[in-house]
Every structure is written in C-alpha cells, then in structure tokens.
Amino acid sequence: MSLFLEESIVNYTDRAIYHSGGTSGLHSARKAYSEIMDSFDELGQMDDTVPMSAQTPTEFTLINSWFMDYPKFKYITGGAIKTEGWDCDAVSQSGIRILDFSNLETNFSVADTGLYVTGGTSNHSGILLAFDNDLKRIWVRIEDTGNLFDEATEDVQVLGGAGGSGVTSQPSRTGENLWPNIYTLGTITGGTNLYIIQTGQIVDPWWSSGHIDVLPYVKEAGTEIDGGVITIFDRKWGALYDNYQIDLTVGGRNAVPLATSNDVNNTGVEGTVSGYTDISFTFGPTAQNLNNGAGDRPYDVIIDLAGTGVYNMYEYTKFVCRSGSVYELSGMSGDRYRYLKGGDLSETKTAQFGTFAGGKFFGARGVWIANYDANDAQNFQLIDSSGTTQIPPNTVTVEVTDLVSGTKIGVFKLHSSTGDINFTEYSGTADNLTASDILYVQGTISGDTPSDGWVGISGANGEGVYEYTAWQTGEFSLTTTLGKDYAVDDPVYIPIIYTGAVGTSVQQTFIYGSDFPIVMRGRLKGYLPWEARTSVTNAGRSLPMTKITDSIAV
What we know:
It contains five helices and 47 strands. It is mostly beta strands. Strands 9-12-11-10-13-14 form a six-stranded antiparallel barrel. The protein has a six-stranded antiparallel sheet with strand order 37-42-39-40-41-38, with no helix packed on it.
C-alpha cells in the first residue's frame, strides 16, 4: 500500500477516510486518486462503493457520499477536490450534516466516531463521522429519512451518553463542499512566510515558508465562505510587499502570481522603527490644501508625522503593515490592510500608504501627510481621493543662525532698483481702524507670502507691525487689534522675519515664486549691529549672524 493510504485510516462501513497522523509530507491529488483506484480495484473491495472520481488530472470529486476529514486535505497538493453526495437527498434525506454547538458539555473523542448521536428534542440520529471540539462542531452521516436535526437548539449526545454531548446553536446544515487548489509562482524573497486571509482573518497555516501549493476550504455545506474569495499575502519586513486576491468559486487548480524583492528603502531595524510611535493615522474623509493652487482637495487618511521626515514615515507605514502586525488600521489589523475603505481607491501593493524612491515619498491614493520635517517640503508627491496628482509647491526657508538669545532680527525685501527696503508692497483700505483684528489691503496678496508672520503699515498716525496667523484675499488675520486708525492707501509691507530670538536661530518658510533681494539685520546691545544684503533663491537662504563685541556699550 502506498504513502497516501499508509497515512490514512479507511472506514469502509462508514465510508470515511481519516488522516492517521503521519507527517511525511504532501501528496498530489492525482497520486491520492491513483492510490484509491488501485486499492478499490481489488476483489475484496467489490462490495464497497468507489470513493473518488476524476474529471481532469487536477480536478477530483469525492463521490458516493464518501467523507474525508478536514486534516487530510492539508496533506494534498496539485489538484482540487469537491464533494458529491454530502447534500441530503430530497427523497431519502441521506447525506452528511454539520451540527454546530453553542456549548459542549463533554468533548467528543476518537472513540465516539462511528457511533450514533441523537437529538434530545428531535430524536433524530446519525453516525458521528468527525468532530472539532475547538470549533464546537461535528459531522454526522444521515441514513434514515427525516433525521434532519432541524431543531434550533437541542441537546445532542453520543447514543447511550457515554461520549461527547452539547447544546446545538442552530439547525443542522447540509450541502456540498469545495477545496480548490492554489499554487503561487513568481519571484519572492527568501524566508518568506505567505499567509491567506479569508473572512478578514488569517487562515491557520499548515504550509512551510516559500511558495505554496495547497487546498484552501472555500465552500461548506453548500455555502461559499466569504463569497469563495481569498487573498494571499507576502509581507516580509525589508521586502517590497505583494498580495493577490482570487475568486475560487469554480474550484480547479489556480495560479497565484506574486512578485517581491528586497526593498532598498526599507533597511531599518524592526525594533528601531517600532519606536516611531509619534506617527499616527486618522482615517476618514478630509479636505486639505497643499497650497499649490489646487485649493481644498479630498483625502481619506491623514498621516501625522509629528515633525519627523518622510523616510521614517515610509518605514513606519511598512512596519504597521508587515506580516504579523496587530496595529489597527481603519478597523483591521495592519497585516491585512490593503487600501482605504469607502471608495474605489487604487491599491499600492508594494507599500500600502505609498512608495519611496530617489529620496521622495509617493503617496497612495487618498493619503495626506501632515506635520512633516520642513526639510522634506519638496520630498513628497500625493494623489488625492479623486485620483489627481498633487505636487507640493517649492517651499523655501529663510533663516538666521548662530544667534544669542534675545537678539532682534529683521529680514526685509528690497526694491530691486534702489536697494531700499520695500515698504510699499501693498496699499491699505479705509477699513483699517482701531480695534480691528483684520488688516485689509487692496489687490491680490502674492502667493509667496508666508502663511503666518508679520505685516507692517505706516501712515500719518504712525507705524505699526502686527503678527498675523493667516491671510486670504485682501486681508490678514491678526493676533491682536490695530492700535490706531490708518487711512486708505497707507503703505503696507510684509517683513519676512520680525522677531526676537529665543534660541540660536530664527526662520520663516513660504512658497518660492522667484528670486528677490533682501537685507538681514541683527541687533543686541553688547554686539555691533549686523547687516547682510543677499537674495532669496529657490533654495531659500540661511546666514549666520556675524557677532562682533561692542566694547563701548555699557
């Protein structure tokens, strides 16, 4: 007798094949069929029905109501198997029924198989073929008309009360079962442990690392499990990820293509990347403005970087989506997260929230990033939820460094022709009156104006420089109120920096439009006044203050 049957227990009376516990490896479905045919062509088997038929070299059917226990399918490869005759016949009501329990009073055991079980309310009975105490489930062969176990709940026990017993949770179920065959192909990284998601949960693996050739269970008692759809995942840390969703309702042998390779941008140590917990995810529709002229655009998740760089964020998004992740993302654990819910959004299989290349993060559709390191202002590209690519404007920084705390810093735009400070960038309106918390200007405010900062205005009643928190067409929102009345056409200007240093540097960021000249000034008693004339380019500008001690000032 050959290996498949050597590792099987065949019960000819109850028409059942059980796995005997052998662990020598997988057996092809065709080989299993051949062994069964070889065994049942003996004279001694002529009084038994044949257990299996073949439709193709990779498609087989358990026929004549023969039963094979579920563990046995884990040792079969290379072909699909379905059942015929498990569904109770409409006339004889013969077949196989599944009974589910809400509570097991006594666990079932191997000694119970082949014995009759009976329902305390229905008085229906059948032969116990198999059991799963963890699932609280048994399989029963029905041999007499009307033994349906159709009570919603009833006490069921092995006849005589010597074995397993419990209370059912619903009427018994019947129907045909299906175990299609899937096999993966393509290039995957060494040591990869593939896993299968079905009904949102990981199927307990019975396979080894690397490519797989297995029979997942997709139809039970005539009902497809999760529509017959499964998803195979390859998410090894340090590699580009991949997954493949497949509909197995037609059974058969099915190829699952996967393609992974080492991720040259995911080289961090898991233990280190796991510490980036300041990075957070907020799921849900949101409107965000990248200040690139497109206005508010729709997104479906905000990743808050908490001041870190986009590279760290990229590695963290890989970490929370890797194999084994239990980080919750949009109501599911990260190891099965694929794309944003609630919309027809494209999937980025290699990295679920976006890819990284050439020092830049390329966001998946619907992903918005916030509070990133200012040095990464140009190091990303997004796609809003409508599918439109959003490229950030060139945000530049003007900075004065090497300061002594308390130094007063002023950075002003210059007239390109005269070299004087440009105090006449805009003209005020008649609405700039005492106690107003808005400063109004005529015309359109330039797009390279900082989103918050300082605005100056001067007139017959004097000069004032006010801090603002935001601006929109024709107005600046102030943190205080105007201290006096200003007249229409009073000149208005925007200092780039106008503040006292509380540390060793001050800076301001804004959208670059074109080059322009500036003057930087720093003043603190005890040092000679410092002034530097330069220009702002598409790289911004950063200069250290030259500090020369003033030996005269006391």
